[in-house]
Amino acid sequence: MRLLLLALPVLAFLPQVIPAYRGEKKCWNKSGHCRRNCEAEEVTQETCKNHRVCCIPHLNNHDKNSR
């Protein structure tokens, strides 16, 4: 019983410690991802929770991929 009482708070705290556990949150009409830093081919659009920014793909990359 003690083990169960110790395991429950640890399991509840795990998603907050490991961001990849829940996956990246979507933002900007579900076309972007909340990250600490955007990748080179992405632009910052807005801010998310936990000091993260909403990174969306740059429009020029979509034009190159569609050709």
From TrEMBL:
Keywords: Antibiotic, Antimicrobial, Defensin, Disulfide bond, Secreted, Signal. Its main location: secreted. GO terms for cellular component: extracellular region. Coiled coil: none annotated. Pfam families: Defensin_beta_2 (PF13841). It is found in: Secreted. The keyword Disulfide bond applies. Residues 1-20 form the signal peptide. Residues 26-55 form the Beta-defensin domain. GO terms for biological process: defense response to bacterium; innate immune response. InterPro entries: Beta-defensin (IPR050544), Beta_defensin_dom (IPR025933). Has antibacterial activity. Belongs to the beta-defensin family. This is Beta-defensin. It comes from Castor canadensis (American beaver). The gene is Defb118.
